[in-house]
Design a protein that fits this description.
Layout (H helix, E strand, L loop, with lengths): L9 H19 L5 H11 L4 H28 L4 H18 L5 H12 L6 H25 L5 H25 L7 H23 L7 H24 L7 H11 L13 H24 L1
Helix pairs in contact: 1-2, 1-6, 2-6, 3-4, 3-5, 3-6, 4-5, 7-8, 7-9, 7-11, 8-9, 9-11, 10-11
Length: about 290
């Protein structure tokens, strides 16, 4: 029985903490709508600190857009379902144009809440909804930063370590086992590590997280690109090559076995190309494994 799927994730726990703090602050300062504080906190809790920061910023601005459009519609247009529908279209269209797509749902909620208000003065009510949502978003971002902040560096390193071991396995199958390999999973992992690298760049750029090793991560990603390129080249060649003496020595070093090949000179053009890619591949894998220890 796999108990991991029943484990409560840290992001879930931090979301609960942010909502609880938000509702407490709403009560202490007598904010008009604790609901919007909670909604803001939930929306701001993202997988990484940089995502939380960017999402929080965009959703605050999106909330202002939703409140302003609702205010304009309520002051100058009849309050009915048709104009509310038109308002929703306008909110979504504007946020799509400025690239704040993740803010659409929250902005639409604020628009509807302000538009449906009949009990309070319109301008103070709209300002209050925006303020309550802002408080929730701010709390969500702060909780994500200070409570077990997710590390994009660790995520990147985990992907890199796994990909190097996979590359070692693929190389063995291609060269020693003379087998065909499917690099689809490796390519999928490449997309994941690219995303992790983008997060490191984002966090370095906005300077909200310390100890980011951007140059080291950039070097690692470049090596992984080269590894994928060389693996793809060897896979496409489908050539049983004569292995060069230098590559035999590298294979022996990487896999800790006595090679079965006789060391002889390379003659064919395909052998030369094969050994070129193999040598780059082996050196990169060995370099990464040596630097990981």
């Amino acid at each position: 029985m796999d108990l991991k799927k029943y484990r409560i994730g840290m992001r879930t726990i931090k979301t609960a903490i942010a909502v609880s703090i938000g509702l407490f602050i709403a009560e202490v300062f007598n904010l008009q709508s604790p609901l919007f504080v909670g909604i803001g906190a939930i929306h701001a809790m993202q997988a990484t600190v940089s995502e939380s920061f960017e999402t929080g910023k965009n959703r605050i601005l999106g909330t202002v857009v939703g409140g302003l459009i609702a205010l304009i519609f309520a002051l100058y247009l009849p309050r009915n379902q048709i104009f509310m529908g038109i308002g929703i279209i306008l909110v979504i269209h504007i946020l799509n144009l400025v690239g704040w797509k993740k803010a659409i749902s929250l902005s639409a909620i604020v628009f509807i809440a302000v538009s449906l208000n009949h009990d309070f003065e319109m301008i103070p009510y709209a300002v209050s909804r925006v303020l309550d949502t802002f408080v929730g978003i701010a709390i969500g971002v702060l909780v994500n930063y200070f409570v077990a902040a997710p590390s994009s560096n660790k995520m990147f390193e985990k992907y890199a370590e796994r990909m190097i071991l996979e590359a070692k396995d693929y190389t063995y199958k291609l060269v020693v086992g003379k087998q065909k390999v499917d690099l689809k999973d490796f390519k999928s992992e490449l997309a994941k590590i690219e995303k992790a690298f983008d997060l490191i760049q984002s966090e370095t750029k906005i300077k909200i997280v310390k100890d980011k090793d951007l140059p080291g991560s950039e070097i690692t990603l470049g090596i992984i690109y080269d590894i994928y390129s060389d693996l793809s080249a060897l896979q496409m060649m489908q050539h049983i090559a004569i292995i060069s003496p230098d590559n035999i020595d590298l294979l022996e070093r990487l896999y800790s076995f006595t090679p079965i090949w006789e060391k002889k000179a390379i003659i064919g053009e395909k052998d030369i190309i094969f050994n070129y890619h193999l040598q780059r591949l082996l050196k990169n894998i060995i370099y990464m494994l040596d630097n990981d220890n």
